[in-house]
């Protein structure tokens, strides 16, 4: 008789496995350990993309490929080498560098996929979200949650580049996406410093009485660098003064939230900003779910699955699920990160493990 | 035989009603229409208190009654004339003017009752909440949610007065309150401009990673006037520009929220700030639940149950449940209000009625 | 100068306190310890009502007072001796014995107040809830949540009595109640064994696809004795077999729930059923919030605030907030209880203390 | 210059696209319409598996392949022809026929993946969930939520087959799975009719006081056919009597729920049972998210993406996202279905479209 290891060593077994295939069936026992590993074994790999190389390709694309209807965006996706044939940074997350030349416009459209932009350098582009023009400046996080019309236009004669983050891989995988084309030009070409959404919503702890209905995604279209920077600065000062404020010694961090719920900005994407003091080091963490980080400023090293990488402003790296990561700061070290945390949390798969620390029950 | 109207007109009935009392029973049928009216029929009455009179009594109390352990606070409660024998502004809400002379200290204590302070004039006092000194300035809302130690100290040689709002009547009614004395002096006599709580939490849309646990009450101890004022100013400008932002024409308003949930600042008390343009008028509203308002700046009239009252800076008025109210602004008219809305909402008794408007189903 | 104890010992103070009253103000410092006690100090008292006495008065009321429009119900409310001038069992809870003679009808009406009936003996009455006739039998819990039309009719020639529980005191206190008269006769005089609501909802763990919207109150109008009895029986058997199932040794209990949420049956009232084995004894508990119990079957003692009372079938007792209670069973001892737990929980005032046990943090 | 269609028609463009690949990047514009289609365009196809063929292969596997540690289960997964190289019924859902010979044991293990079993015929196996033996009988739904130890043993000398449903594809995709081996034998070989979990939880509307903490997954391990059948029978009778109870004319349905929340039984899997009267026909529906159905009893047709399939007892079919489906019943037609609905709902991608009907806003 045959052991439960999948080897087809008799004519009957050979026939059985052939019939499996003919009937669109497959045995569990030959693939159980691949399908259900002892701990997450992602195909995606930890990987670092260099901003200089990305920006160079973006600039050349700007010269060679016009932006327009159909392709919609001049966006170049980080393609995780462990996920060949895709342009996915991780199984769930899309991350691209988007480039818009002087006075170019990326046409309006809307889609179920949730999206944000984060700006590591430059300014001069307005993203217009449901008719509300939102300035994009260094250090800002800009949201375009699912099914909001949006386009971008560059109001200057200089190019600008930034990163886009979306749940495109998840949406493609789970077959949840809808798409509609909108206006060829943005629907409002004004270039105000502050969006209407901020004027309504960016007041700490205050909610307009005209907006008491909770919203699936944040109604705040822009999270400005001046607020993020101030929040992180204060956390480190509080730590200096002996008060609890930071994640761990020398490591300040904020999560961007939906002011109508206090939860994540969008149902599938979590956004955070981390700051390490010069010389600080994080614990090593294993986390369920995947992440993409971008260095915003400073220099340091990231250790991904045991391998150390030096990274500097603009560099991006992907951390697949359960791959241990830690950071070390040579200078003050500022990093933006986004993850699929809301997916993991809402479906109750959250687990974190810190080797050498006391860990809560891991189930 | 006896009709169901409670008149005891036979010896048997007389005996029956006597036996009711002897057995600690009472018939429903003689009191049903009082107990269960067709619509809310509060005993509390609409009432206006004048700031000048309050302040005068507060000042005299400051001269005659020292603040100290036992009495705890030099606070004078608004006593609704419809609720004799109490110092309740409405059945659920306590509102008092509190007065602290130069260099006086109100000792620390904590209690289950939720409390806030709102400042209509003056400055120079710090309220110390769980060891965090919080400056009190004109237009600020300061929170001391249930079971947080708090005391106040006046860092100047000038007196200061403000209003306290608490759920003392509800807590007393429902027998839910605990109380503990704390330090005679405040536990931190520093006088920083900004509290530690604000340094951690008062960044729009940002949440510290060290504070991801949701909290019953807002972790933000102070809502500063500059933010409130800016939010209201922007709503009216947006209205001018043709965008939806206000409650109704000329009427801007914000609700103070708990940034960990987007909901009310405390489980029993809702706080809001309203601004009317000069000349604006609100709709008339009936609302389940009671409220206390204070004019912060400007002049106008409030119509309470059909009676018009002129009110000006500092004046307070109580609006019992279902009493129709409306406001008319002579100048720009700024008002703070607090209500028992979270109690009403969480227990699903919410109803609003606007005479002459389309109303949603009233059940 | 005057100490903060309220004694008016100078002409200035006498004048000050007179002016307080004239201005509808009251000092906090003279009443702070009454208003804000160290722990809940209810005016309501622990009290036992005897079923025999209640039933006798109910029967005599049935002879002398017809049921009908206006008075609406032949219901006799438990009047807590600590709350004189009311017919309140506790500050928040109404409990009455209701009596309906053979072939009598209590007319239909609806109100915001939430109500239930619990049957300690007898049968033959149908309560008709929004047109759905619901049989009332011994041991059953029947719900009429706020704003559902309901009437009762006795389909037999024998009288029937049961208890009603409502949030009438809370609704009256907080001014939240609306009331409407309905049909003089019940709108469906059928007398089915099982209501339509049960046919849709009383299937364990199953929810009709036509009822996927969550509901404020349970859509299940009847919780039948056979289910309650079986659940309690199984808990005690599981305990016998060595498995965790009971609250404490020999003490089984169930909470009645809203199947659309798993939470309490109504937003203001919690209903439970407790069973003690003969000889069993509960721990002594202090709980925030008030309760009314009815002995359903068996004999035992209840200790309320240190005083022991023997109780038997039908006897009712009120337990005000924080009054310590414990039960001792002489025979198998079955008790129904209802509380204002949802009010206490939703407003975050919950606390429990078990003297001599380890208690979780009491804040 | 190059149009945004991806054709590399100059040396510069050819070099650019080569450099994309070298830098682990990929352009969005050449793949945007595949990645972000106008509506969901699943690779999975609608497909029907025949029970007779499945059972025949299962029986032969029973003869040839022993069940045991490593392979763990003699389970044969439905392999959607649109997802080659996998054994996935849909992108998110695993469905397998599992076969256990007389007196065989499938060893205990636990995993993060959520699982259930549904029994279309036979009996005699007990699934032991965290030490609680749960009988498996025709029509029953049995749960083994994530991280619960479970094994199966056949207490008879006859084989038994059933279907397993899991979120294995989702867990593999999102890299969230953990796995641990347990006992080689089941930890309790008893064969009670009713599990302990049912004895605690299968009482309609009742919750043990020892189980007041809400649970991520249902604590009820078995949903028995007698309850499901009765619920469906009553819905159709109520429809006959003129009362709202069914999804649409002649179509009764229940959702299996977690009694602690009223929501889905597990965080990733929704389970339902549908019954059509003979002659009834459903509307055609497009739904976001994928499903697997099994005919439990009766005969009829299912139309999947416009193609009609006759199906009978035991037959299974997969419905990928947004593929229109409808059912027509020749006899009374009973079907079990499970879907990834909780994933879709919790991440806010839910949409339904009924051609020819009024549809709510589709965004």
From TrEMBL, chains A, B, C, D:
The reply to whether Oxidoreductase figures as a keyword in the UniProt entry is yes
Question: Which GO MF terms does the UniProt record name?
Answer: oxidoreductase activity, acting on single donors with incorporation of molecular oxygen, incorporation of two atoms of oxygen
Give any Pfam family that matches: Cupin_2
The Cupin type-2 domain sits at: 101-164, 281-331
Q: Which UniProt keywords apply?
A: Dioxygenase, Oxidoreductase
- Entries under SUPFAM superfamilies matching the protein: RmlC-like cupins (SSF51182)
Q: Which domain of life is it from?
A: Bacteria
In Swiss-Prot or TrEMBL terms, this protein is called Cupin 2 conserved barrel domain protein
Q: Which organism is it from?
A: Cellulomonas flavigena (strain ATCC 482 / DSM 20109 / BCRC 11376 / JCM 18109 / NBRC 3775 / NCIMB 8073 / NRS 134)
